[in-house]
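Worked example 2:
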Amino acid sequence: MKKLISILLLSLYLVSTTELYQFLKLPALIEHYMEHKNLSPEMSLTAFLKVHYDNPVKDSDYSKDQQLPFVSHAAHLVIVCTPATPFTFQLSEKESKPVIKAKKTFYKSIFYNKDILNSIWQPPKSC
């Protein structure tokens, strides 16, 4: 029973938050294909899909064409969060000390040894 409920909840979640709901429109695709097949019996499924998905045209059945799966897309899940109480910001009237940052230079760093770098980078010496 837990497995069935888990599958049901996962399915509901995926259908409501992803494009999987488009597969629920497959009966409309089949019905629309049958209508086109009745109008022109020589139309194949690939020709039908090419007409409706490759180069869609605004024709007399455009409203039915828009109901086919993967033709139109919608925003699925929109979550808006608002704080329960309004956010307020107040400055205190206490006098604060200004923060002065000391400028650190690289050559005074403990990781920099001038003697080592000078011994590496020297011009060629002539004998």
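Helices lie at 2-17, 26-39, 45-54, 62-65, 114-120. Residues 2-17 form the longest helix (16 residues).
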